UniProtKB/TrEMBL annotation:
Signal peptide annotation: none
UniProt-recorded name of the protein: Uncharacterized membrane protein
Keyword Transmembrane helix: yes
Organism: Pseudidiomarina planktonica
Entry's transmembrane regions: 7-28, 79-98, 119-141, 192-220
Entry-linked InterPro entries: DUF599 (IPR006747)
Phylogenetic classification of the source organism: Bacteria, Pseudomonadati, Pseudomonadota, Gammaproteobacteria, Alteromonadales
Length: 246
């Protein structure tokens, strides 16, 4: 009965806003993954640069600098994973005192009429977003750990025990693991972006819808129209737009 009352407390506008949020998040993730196959983006150029990195790795006698670079990335992902736990703990703490949060929200201009049950539902969903982000970050950490193992067994430059075909196979597959780790890290960061949009739901569903669309626009601009993308593509003699089919 309590669950039914909670569901009834959420208005149709809230359900519509939540639906748009889910569609935008899932839709953009799917769109970005498929579009990267045909259009130059941060994802596509970083994939190529990771292949180049692994290829360069096999032409070195030592990988000390490469291990340090990978360690810096791992520390960054670990920082976000640790921060996510702290944020999640904060959300759960606020969940226990939803009545006080409701009073604060009602004092903010433009805040829609709310109830304790609605606030609790929103906090619970917000907690789920950070749980999702935590799993993405920790999986990225593990995959970066796999890359460090692959670096440790990289074919030595002067070793006669490896053929060119074996070296190429190592480059392709190790770069794929590194690329997958990068994608998981990116998915965790994307969860943070959408969590910021989700916060506007506590104010008003229209604000929630607006900030969700704004986040999608920001992500698209950075992925396909940013200055950093043009600079990265320039290192390979490329420009933003459709990829040349070979």
């Amino acid at each position: 009965m309590a669950t039914e009352n909670t569901i009834m407390a959420i208005s149709y506008l809230d359900w519509i806003a939540l639906g748009i949020f889910i569609v935008c998040w899932y839709g953009y993730t799917t769109f970005a993954r498929k579009r990267a196959r045909t259009t130059h983006s941060l994802s596509s150029i970083l994939r190529q640069l990771r292949i180049d990195w692994m290829a360069t790795l096999t032409r070195k006698d030592h990988q000390i600098a490469d291990a340090a670079l990978l360690g810096n990335v791992e520390r960054t992902v670990t920082f976000f994973a640790s921060s996510t736990i702290l944020v999640l703990a904060g959300v759960l703490t606020v969940l226990a005192s939803a009545e006080k949060l409701m009073v604060v929200l009602q004092s903010i201009p433009f805040t829609a009429v709310t109830s304790t049950e609605k606030v609790q539902v929103k906090l619970f969903l917000l907690a789920l977003i950070f749980v999702f982000a935590f799993f993405k970050f920790t999986w990225a950490i593990r995959q970066f750990g796999f890359v460090s193992v692959l670096m440790g067994v990289a074919p030595q430059y002067r070793s006669p025990d490896y053929t060119e075909e074996q070296r190429d196979m190592y480059v392709r597959h190790s770069a794929k693991v590194l690329d997958q780790a990068g994608h998981e890290y990116n998915n965790g960061l994307r969860a943070y972006y959408f969590a910021l949009a989700f916060l506007m739901w506590f104010i008003h569903p229209f604000f929630f819808i607006g900030t969700t669309l704004l986040v999608v626009w920001v992500l698209y601009r950075r992925e396909y129209r940013s200055r950093i993308l043009r600079s990265l593509l320039a290192t390979k003699g490329l420009v933003p737009g459709k990829q040349q089919q070979e």
